[in-house]
Amino acid sequence: MSDKVDYAIQDCEQLELTVNNNLAAMKKKGFTDERLAELTTAKQTVVQKNSAQQNAMKLVELKTAEQNKAMETTSKIIQKIRDSSKAAYDTNDPKLKLFKIGEQMPTSVKKMRSLCEYLAPVVLEYTDILLQNGLEQADIDLFHSASGTLIAADTTQENSKKLQKSATITVSQEYANLTKVMAKTRAFAKTCFAESPEILVQFKPIPKGGGGNNNNPPQEPPQNPPSA
After folding, report:
1. CA–CA separation, 14 vs 205, rounded Å?
2. I need a labelling partner for 25 at 20 to 30 A (CA). Which of 46, 71, 124, 135 fits?
3. What pTM, to 2 d.p., does this model score?
4. CB neighbours (10 Å) of residue 113?
């Protein structure tokens, strides 16, 4: 979608320039300043909404990175707690089951949050034992704060995805409106300059993928190019 929007903006800039260059002749056939303003406004709106959508995408990337960092921090501290419990109890001690030793570390936020909620009272009850087996109070504090950090990161990341979806819908709508206004403008030009192909060619869309040139209209190749 981004490439289509970028192309439409660039193509509209070229069309605006062409209209202004031929405005006097077009006005004689009924083209108004309001119609030119409609074209300009449609383009400016797409530019604004496209920028907002790009910013929304960057926000999702940022919040996803924060969520991933929270998951990594939580995973590491839980593993540290598990290692401490294994240092405290024999392999066959049933207390190890309380720390879910041997279970795979969750890879989803939902399951990690659930594990944190389960382990919180267990860690609280066995804090003294854990502190005697390699952990520090800072580790205990980090674990208790990890769940809250993870929840906050997950909430903001989900919200940023909703904002991006909304921004994408909006830019799609404005893009559709821009292409409609451009099509109507070119249809007017086709009628207005039906007998002037040298002018009408200036209203053709810029080449796709070629970058275009906003200062000069695209030129058609010669009918009979010279042979080498």
Report:
1. 8
2. 46
3. 0.74
4. 17
